[in-house]
Design goal:
This protein is globular. The relative contact order is 0.15. It contains 12 helices and 11 strands. It has about 270 residues and is an alpha/beta fold. It has a single domain, classed as Aldolase class I (TIM Barrel), CATH 3.20.20. Helix 7 packs parallel to helix 8 and helix 9 packs parallel to helix 11.
Amino acid sequence: MIGKKVRLNRLFGHPSGRLCSIAVDHFIGYGDGLPPGLRSIRATLAAIVAGQPDAVTMQRGLALSAWEPHAGRVPLILQSSLARPDDSVCEQILTPEEAARFGADALAVAGFVRGATEGRFLRTIAETAQAAERCGMPLIAHVYPREFHEGPRISYAPEDIAWAVRCGWECGADVIKVPFCNEAKAYAQIVADCAVPVVIAGGPQAATLREALTMLRTAMVCGARGATVGRNVWGHTQITAVVQAIKAVVHDGRSAEEALQLAGLT
């Protein structure tokens, strides 16, 4: 469908062919108080947009009440899911048709695989993909495998990341976002085996920005088609500069050290 192609071309429109997007859809993960970057969301969004990312992902409420000053300047990805790894929350709050009325360039859906509720999440991804297809809306599946030894927690094992990618692909997602498995050779094979773009999830906030950028650089070398980063952007005080550093890695192939220098963060 041409509408889907138009939207995907906007998201992946950089000459690098990669997507560098920023996410602020994390509120459901914080039950006891939001971090400063999410509390002061209007200032955070302004700082993110100043860095000119390829897209920003958020929930519907932020799009309605805080995105208007930036509407049309940066592509919008709307998150449709409220979900936690322990299954204490598992709801859909937005349809593809609503996302189209919002002017969104893509719809995101979250799913956790491995464990007893895996099938329920996969059904949600598949049903959302079917509905999105009818209105030309690209679907980005945020798929996270779990392990239950001390959990549930997100698993970074290569075989689990490979399973998460395959699940998102088989269920009809147009783009799949998964964590990095910390094994370059394995991640390169996972990405190569998938016929739709795989982008890396920024993950938990790294100990240092250099560490986060190094992980992103490795993923790009492995063939990832981009990155969606949240905590490692709004968890810093110099948000605009961090977005610029991430773009230098994702789009320009810069090393972590080069990106830090270019963004004035050294």
